[in-house]
What we know:
Elements: H1 15-28, E1 32-39, E2 42-48, E3 58-59, H2 63-77, H3 87-90, H4 101-105, H5 108-112, H6 133-138, H7 154-168, H8 172-184, E4 190-191, E5 205-207, H9 209-220, E6 224-225, E7 228-229, H10 233-240, E8 264-265, E9 271-275, E10 279-284, E11 289-295, H11 301-311, H12 325-336, H13 350-355, E12 359-361, E13 371-376, E14 380-387, E15 390-397, E16 402-406, E17 420-430, E18 433-440, E19 446-452, E20 462-469, E21 477-485
Antiparallel strand pairs: 1-2, 1-11, 3-5, 4-5, 6-7, 8-9, 9-10, 10-11, 12-13, 12-21, 13-14, 14-15, 16-17, 17-18, 18-19, 19-20, 20-21
Helix pairs in contact: 1-11, 1-12, 2-7, 2-8
Amino acid sequence: MSLPRSTPEEQGLSSAAVARFVEALRSEAPGVHSVMLVRHGHVVAEGWFAPYRRSHPHSMFSVSKSFVATAVGFAIEDGLVGLDDAVVDLLPDDLPAVVGDNLAAMRLRHLLTMTSGHAVDTVEALAEHEHNWAKTILAQPVTLAPGSTFVYNSGATYLISAILQSVTGLRVLDYLTPRLLEPLGIESATWEQCPRGIDAGGWGLSITTDDLAAFGQTYLDGGRWAGEQVVPAHWVSEATRLQVENGDDGTRGDDGQGYGYQFWRNRHGTYRADGAFGQKAVVFPDHDTLLVMTAGLPEAQVALDAVWEHLLPVLGTGAPLRPDATAARALHDLLAGLTLPLPLGAPSSPVGDRVRGTVYRLPRNALGLESVALDVAPDATTLTLVTAAGPQAVVCGVGRWVDGRAVLLGPEAGGRPAGEPVSAAGAWADDDSFVATVHYTTTPFALTVSLDFAASRPGVAEVTVNVEQNAAFGPTQLLHTNGRAI
Length: 486
């Protein structure tokens, strides 16, 4: 069952006001991939920024944590765990040789509230080929008294996932399937796993925008979906209320408003499931409203700022408004025509004709890019990127997005399979420079690849290659180097 559709006016919103919010989101938070607004249990506005589409699953990053918290609620209901169970008793086979007092005092509730006693995110301790993540995380120093200090820690959520798999005998994904996913109609969820087959927990879940909306609406409705109590109501209340303060370090904005059980508290009496780069389900309990977004934002707070400035003030009382066919049509057209920016420039260049088919070898680099080549055609240009995984031919449309598949490059590529869905477009920014934008359309990530042949004219024997990523946990400038024709 999917959420029913309605007009904004039928649910007490102005179509013109919703359109202004979408316009503001587009201009103030460029990089949003999808937006869905739900009022009184009805979808009143929804749109996907091309090349992203409704059918695409999207990496949720730390929204995954809220699903893990939901699984804990079920496990408590099933009598398998308790909030005050000791972590050392729940994961006895993964303990260090010496168990300190703080580790011994750590409880499941401390993992849920990010007050495990670790001073840093323990995920940082995992080596690239680490086999037993739980053992590594539990071996990290627990320098603070559990329960005393909020420190955002994705490793804590991984430990919850490991605990749940230990007590249920199932991956979190499989444990949630009959209890949550199937009732909500979530059919194609996937979750990244550690080398031992345990769901990553704190990240790694991929679902669609509609799926995230179903999850958020279930929480807004106190755990009910389609007239059935799916998530225990008391757990919804406990998981989303303030469990621990987290603003003592001077944090401003919405990350310092407190934390529940793997849910963030926001300003204005709202809360959210939140993932890096703008994955959000923002719940407005006082207005019976839900806002869902997927995105590839380098700074996600700008999206919430747009919500408070442009959406919150127009939520009103919720009583139906007089129909406005003109405004409703304008909103429909706006949402149907959303697109991410296409590269600007000309479809061809004289230099393009001269470099067609030439392979440019690159010096050794951290990105692992070995060579590049262009095959220029009137309606599309094929950009071939060669890595250790082999050649990746990315067809870049002229003034349009063209779908394909390619290996995910960049620092977030670890663990992702070859052949990621992509959509690309390209243009000649000037006579000497070709620019391609490549969106990895099941992730927040996009690459801008620039090839500048100016330095080697007229022979065109060299190219300057620049690769930037739209958002990243580290630097977004991935490569700047020169290649030579071979």
